[in-house]
Write a structure and sequence with these properties.
Radius of gyration: 30 Å
Largest sheet: 5 strands, mixed
Number of helices: 23
Strand content: 5-15%
Distance between the termini: 80 Å
Number of domains: 3
Strand order of the largest sheet: 2-1-3-5-4
Length: 622
């Protein structure tokens, strides 16, 4: 029978308690999921479908920045788990691992009382923090990334506390840091921080084995990094992921935004963030704690500087502060242990102080977390689920035709529709990041790329701006200024079951897959291409056909270019075709076809077929 130390049992109890607290805290933000999560899931889904680590057909690009995350989700998907559920399970497991790593390290130490308080205060900080709770269900890679860092720190601590080269700890540390490197491209920053801390402390203290360790941790870690780089060069033919080309644009504009992002996120975690930095600096003056404080401080400085450099982030709940929160949690635990040691001799004073410290810190933290605007955004942001319903409608209507869909929301719409897609913001596109605009670096982070001319040249069958808005972002603004966009694309209001508002989707009447089709002497016009400027809506009928609803006594119209100057027989596919009348007029090669309702109720139009009365057409009418 295994006999556990009392502190180990307390550690297990505290971890279980605070994981439960985290679960209920995270449920407050449920069902939040990030659109970028669904970009990663699209890569995982296509990998499982045998289509490789790709986002769509064509030149493959690395539009994800979380290789290990994508592979782990695919692995759970291979075992039959829904990929959204897989992302949540891995997210929560990652956040739980951080707590386990802290409790494991401090429960192994002597002095029951001091370490119990250290574990309690650091786990309470994590469980009550908004970024931890939000990203425990948000589905992106931050929990895995943070878990790698949390797993690395006990190995690093063991190395600096030992009087000899610790082979097993060096291997463990190297693997944890190596996994961080293939979880995110910026993972090497934490390897640099650890290696630099060992190097500096080893030289300063003249402890040769620690100085040597600064080099011994590099081969395995670099091996992970080079393995991914080799894969990237082989598979994508690039030195850096597409995400770097889209999001990293050093400029004073982004530096200022990055500084504000760091500052605001740091202050939102007060007073723990402030005390963590105080602890890191203060513990440098304690010979016993100095090497651990140096490791944490270098991680803090490097990662904070990196956040400023990249311009911060746009997602809810300060997700880039999650790795910092691991550093803060270990610093808080080490600081709490130091304070407890000073008070432990006086038992009554220690109990009073621990209660006072806990209440004075956790109360303001909790208040700030539930009143922080960025955290609250995770409560209100639900448009990804609107996108799911839009995507499922389009999949049901056009699964056979597989139209090309141009989007600005590159996660939810492509993932749930499974349709070929064009990313108008460039994250998953080859051309746009390699042809940035002249003012790149001065706009909204990650949303600066776009080119209307390029989008038109790809001839997408559908264009959707966000969840069905009018043209937005650079591609949308440029498209809106192009006559051919307005000539070829018909904006339609589509009623989506479950969504409060209809979505505006632009249908390409010249699209190859779902546009106007010619067959011999016939022109086949889908009903969804007819336009009524007043109030017509499209919806998915019981036969999974996207039909156009013409209201009572109203009309709708379509204009066809390059049409033969001839008369046409008109056949209307509709449950109430007898109540519809077709009117046609021609001016040169432009044919105008109007459908007029004679009914006192709404009429659904699925398709209109024109058959030439004389001869065979020499040109396609579109």
């Amino acid at each position: 029978m295994i006999k556990l130390k009392p502190t180990t049992l307390v550690g297990i109890g505290l971890v279980a308690s605070f994981i439960t607290v985290l679960f209920y805290h995270a449920s407050y933000y449920y069902p939040f999921i990030s659109d970028d999560t669904l970009i990663s899931l699209r890569y995982s889904a296509r990998l499982l479908a045998g289509e490789g680590l790709t986002w769509t057909e064509g030149i493959p690009v690395e539009g994800y920045s979380n290789l290990l995350w994508v592979l782990l989700i695919a692995l759970l998907g291979w075992f039959g788990m829904d990929l959204v559920d897989a992302s949540r399970v891995l997210s929560f497991a990652g956040m739980s691992t951080i707590m386990i790593a802290i409790a494991y390290w401090y429960s192994q130490k002597d002095n029951f009382k001091t370490n119990t308080f250290a574990i309690f205060i650091s786990l309470a900080f994590l469980a009550l923090s908004g970024p931890i709770a939000v990203w425990a269900i948000g589905g992106l890679e931050q929990p895995l990334y943070a878990a790698c860092i949390a797993a690395a720190l006990p190995f690093a601590y063991h190395i600096v506390e030992s009087n000899k080269v610790e082979k097993n700890s060096i291997i463990g540390l190297s693997i944890a840091l190596g996994l961080a490197c293939i979880t995110r491209p910026d993972g090497p920053l934490f390897t640099v921080a650890c290696a630099a801390a060992f190097f500096i402390y080893g030289l300063w203290s003249k402890r040769q084995h620690i100085f040597l360790t600064s080099f011994l941790i590099l081969p395995i870690t670099i091996g992970f990094f080079l393995a991914q780089l080799a894969f990237r060069l082989y598979y994508y033919g690039e030195w850096v992921p597409n995400t770097a080309l889209v999001k990293i644009a050093p400029s004073s504009h982004h530096f200022l935004n990055g500084f504000n992002y760091f500052k605001d996120g740091f202050l939102s975690l007060a007073p723990f963030s402030i005390l963590a930095v105080v602890a890191m600096v203060g513990l440098l003056f304690s010979p016993k704690s100095r090497p651990k404080a140096l490791i944490l401080l270098l991680m803090f400085v490097l990662w904070s500087s990196y956040m400023v450099f990249i311009g911060g982030d746009i997602f809810p709940a300060y997700r880039h502060h999650v790795p910092l929160m691991v550093v803060f949690a270990f610093a808080i635990a080490e600081g709490a242990k130091f304070i407890s040691l000073q008070l432990a001799e006086d038992k009554a004073k220690w109990h009073f102080a621990s209660i006072l410290i806990g209440c004075s810190l956790l109360a303001p933290l909790s208040y700030l977390q539930f009143n922080e605007e960025r955290n609250h955004k995770a409560v209100t942001e639900r448009w990804e689920w609107d996108g799911k319903r839009i995507a499922e409608t389009l999949k049901a209507a056009f699964d056979k035709e597989q139209p090309l869909m141009a989007v600005t929301a590159a996660g939810c719409l492509p993932y749930w529709s499974e349709l070929p897609s064009l990313d108008m913001l460039g994250l998953n596109d080859y051309y746009l990041p390699r042809n940035p605009p002249a003012d790149f670096g001065k706009g909204f982070l990650g949303h600066e790329l776009g080119e209307g001319k390029y989008v038109i040249e790809q001839n997408p069958d559908l264009i959707i701006f966000h969840m069905g808005m009018r043209p937005i972002f650079r591609s949308g603004r440029e498209l809106n200024d192009m006559p051919e966009f307005h000539d070829n694309y018909i904006p339609q209001q589509v009623r989506i079951s479950g969504n409060r508002q209809p979505s505006t989707i632009y249908f390409n009447k010249k699209g190859n897959n779902i546009g106007i089709q010619q067959a011999d002497d016939k022109i086949i016009i889908p009903g969804y291409l007819f336009k009524n400027d007043k109030s017509n809506h499209l919806y998915l009928n019981e036969d999974n056909k996207l039909v156009n609803t013409l209201k009572a006594r109203q009309s709708m119209v379509i204009h066809l270019d390059n049409a033969e100057q001839t008369k046409w027989d008109v056949s209307i596919k509709s449950p109430d075709s007898y109540s519809l009348m077709a009117q046609q007029s021609q001016s040169g090669e432009k044919l105008t076809l109007v459908l007029v309702s004679k009914s006192n109720r709404a009429v659904d139009v699925e398709q209109v077929v024109l058959t030439a009365k004389t001869g065979t057409m020499s040109r396609q009418a579109k």
